[in-house]
Design goal:
By secondary structure, this protein is an alpha/beta fold. 44% of the residues lie in helices and 15% in strands.
Length: 413
């Protein structure tokens, strides 16, 4: 540890922040950054262009987390770079009509207020790149939220480690992060080449594929070969989220698709090989056994405007018998409302819910016990985080469950 501590060099400005010259709140933040740098053997810190902070839902933070944030905010610190928030535990506007309790709403709003007092934008979305917060290729950032980290590294070619909530907030307050891990060229090379030899026909197929790859490579960097498949950005969002959930994958490359893979060789010498010739194991792991469906949840990661258009087209003219919640960013919901998409979805009985996600919402107080979803990330996390029985499949299958209130299994792969 002493060797690692000696290797970390700080600039005079960084030393001043650590010494408390910018106030106790900044000093606390710099202590966190320096400690991480020492632990991981960083030689220097690196300026960051933006930050995404997780740890926003009061369900996850609790009173201790809220007190920690309020204490930090009371020390007068504020963020130095554009900083956005992960989803909260509720829709910040329509929480009452959606069934959230007044007490939870009061504490959740206090969490958001603590963050905004630090100068953070209350975006409350896991897809900041869909609401104008788009880092450029090669730019160093400090993002927390596994799917956003995956997208930033893989699809945009920015550079971030998978930050925790406190370390991301510390980076926002100081404007720097420790330069280790995926900030370095050598750590962005793929250690596993994945040959996908089965057809990919839906977003659920992508989720099942991502689950299998993430489970196999864990926190490694995979290089995927998927034939002549031409994915859209929403496809890559879905795939990356699944790999990040099942295996902590923070960066992946796809041959001929992702920017670093297009720019040159990104595979390590002696990389391992993995063949995926079917998806049934992924579906089996993510899909449960319940028949009655209380809630259909779409939008994990948060739905894009294009996905809301597709949902409106699929749902129009239907009459739902159970709850359908499509979760998205507040600004995306506003754009969808202006386009008439929200009205079309609500006419069938669905809801477009902003600011939150069913993984971080207090599901117990909402009364839901079973869920259908097209998101592998949601299917992976919801049983443990929300106590829900989950069915997993394509959106069309989920829509049938919303229409009938029951799940009709259709195996893929």
């Amino acid at each position: 540890m002493r060797e690692k501590e000696a290797a970390l060099r700080l600039t005079s400005d960084e030393q001043a922040m650590l010494a408390g010259e910018a106030g106790p709140g900044v000093a606390k933040a710099m202590e966190i950054i320096v400690a991480l740098g020492q632990i991981y053997g960083a030689r220097s810190l690196v300026p960051v262009a933006s930050v995404q902070v997780s740890g926003v839902s009061y369900k996850n933070l609790g009173e201790a987390g809220l007190e920690f944030l309020e204490s930090w905010a009371a020390q007068g610190a504020s963020v130095r770079v554009p900083t956005t928030l992960n989803p909260a535990g509720m829709d910040l506007t329509s929480w009452g009509e959606l069934g959230f309790s007044q007490e939870f709403a009061r504490r959740q709003q206090a969490v958001v207020d603590a963050y905004t007092s630090l100068g953070i934008m209350p975006t409350c979305t896991c897809t900041p790149y869909l609401v104008g917060h788009v880092p450029s290729f090669g730019q160093h950032i400090a993002w927390a939220e596994s799917s956003a980290v995956s997208y930033a590294n893989s699809v945009l070619g920015a550079r971030t480690n998978r930050e925790g909530g406190p370390s991301a907030l510390a980076a926002a307050i100081t404007g720097v992060t420790a330069c280790y891990g995926l900030h370095l060229d050598e750590n962005r090379l793929a250690g596993t080449v994945v040959d996908v030899q089965c057809p990919i026909g839906s977003e659920a197929d992508l989720g099942a594929l991502g689950y299998l790859v993430g489970r196999a490579v864990k926190n490694g960097v995979p290089y995927l070969r998927i034939g002549d498949w031409a994915p859209g950005r929403c496809d890559l969002k879905t795939l990356g989220a699944a790999m990040a959930a099942s295996g902590a994958v923070a960066l992946y490359h796809i041959e001929g698709v992702t920017p670093e893979a297009r720019a040159g060789n990104v595979v390590q010498l002696g990389a391992e090989s993995l063949v995926i010739d079917g998806l049934s194991a992924g579906y089996s792991a993510l899909d449960g056994a319940c028949e009655q469906i209380d809630l259909v949840s779409i939008g994990c990661p948060h739905a894009s405007l294009a996905e809301l258009r597709s949902a409106a087209d699929l749902i129009e003219g239907r009459s739902l018998k159970t709850n359908l919640w499509i979760t998205t960013a507040r600004s995306t919901r506003e754009a969808a409302e202006a386009e008439g998409l929200v009205a079309r979805i609500e006419a069938a009985g669905g809801r477009v819910v902003a600011d939150t996600c069913m993984v971080v919402a207090p599901v117990a107080e909402l009364g839901f016990r079973t869920m259908a979803t097209n998101s592998a990330k949601m299917a992976f996390y919801a049983p443990a985080h929300s106590g829900l029985e989950v069915r997993f499949g394509p959106f069309e299958q989920c829509l049938e469950a919303a229409t009938s209130g029951k799940w009709v299994p259709v195996r893929a792969g």
